[in-house]
Write a structure and sequence with these properties.
The chain is an all-alpha fold. One of its GO terms (cellular component) is mitochondrion.
């Protein structure tokens, strides 16, 4: 079985077309392996497409992760600066009261 062909597979259009043509030319022999070579080529194309898509998704995820980590660090720095300012203000008030 191959994946559904209704989803766009831009990298594998030639293989999909060849398989569909083979199925039309061999309506009964397709069940006995007449289109096996074409099907194998389509399977390899789908595997290569999957590897490419997985790699692209991984790169996007790394970029997104770096962005989120940067924003989290900026927030931590901002909160630490605010807490330090509050502590200094509290210390100066305590010194002024004495």
């Amino acid at each position: 079985m191959h994946t559904p062909l209704d989803r766009p597979h831009p990298d594998c259009q030639a293989e999909i077309k060849a398989l569909l043509e083979c199925h039309e030319e061999n309506p009964y022999a397709k069940f006995f392996g007449a289109c096996g070579d074409v099907k194998t080529a389509l399977d390899w194309c789908f595997r290569e497409e999957k590897v490419r898509i997985r790699s692209e998704n991984f790169q996007r995820a790394k970029a997104s992760d770096a962005y989120v980590r940067q924003k989290m660090q900026e927030r931590r720095d901002r909160v630490a600066a605010e807490q330090k300012a509050k502590a200094e203000a509290k210390a100066s008030e305590a010194a002024a009261a004495n």
